[in-house]
Amino acid sequence: MKGWLIYNKTDAKQNESYIDWFREEAHLQNLSLQLILREDLTVGIMDNKPAVMLQDRPVELPDFAVIRTIEPFLNYQLESFGVAVYNSSETAFICNDKARTHFHMSKLAIPMADTVYISSKTGLPASPPLAFPLVVKNVSGRGGAQVEMVKNPQEWQHLQHHPSTEDLVIQSAANIQSGKDVRVFVIGSEIIGAVMRENKHDFRANYKLGGSASWYPLNTHEIALVKDICESFRFGMVGIDFLLNHDGRFIFNEIEDVVGSRTLSAVSDINILQKYLAYIKSGSPT
Fold first, then answer.
1. Are 192 and 260 in the same domain?
2. In the listed set 41, 66, 86, which residue is the last one of a domain according to the structure?
């Protein structure tokens, strides 16, 4: 099997060791995995037909592609040629937009904070739609970026004077433990492991923002919640993030499509890329 591992130039440089690990594990499983820079790909319509070119030349497409950029239409275009894409365009389309993700979760009765959708065209209303404290997030933000905690009318007014160019979600933070969340790593429908992330200096628990990580043993109820989510998607590899309420119960937060595994590697000896590539090699559906 021949595969592409697709990154943009900036992320490829920042993730050189992860890419090397990816390719080493592929080699061990007799998979050919070529790093493809997104900037070298041309995707569009040529001669009235969908086309993909590499460095402006026709290219033989791979059997599978692991896409580490956030561009659901790229996933969709490659799927149209019969390439097995990880993650699928449907997963990428839903999970890289927080509003779409929460709407989808609501149909599954997954516990979540009260959430209001705000269009960039209308901007923030004069009065907050939820009681303080609340969190304002760009729908496409990742890694804790473009997330603001708002605790009072003065902070709300400050945000109004600095309007976002993106759509937003506003969520209640009234019954949420600050600076703490749990990321559950999933391949296909299999739970690989879970990590608690904590940050004593920031309401965001992200590891890259100075948080710590520890292994988190899921209980029966939490496993059932994750399984309900998995049954509604065609996952390759994702991270499903949960906040914790003051009773310690899971509150759904988001699904990370292009998920890293630094925290899992830090707290366990699980080789998640070995498992991921074995899943891909098995021809499991995307």
1. yes
2. 86
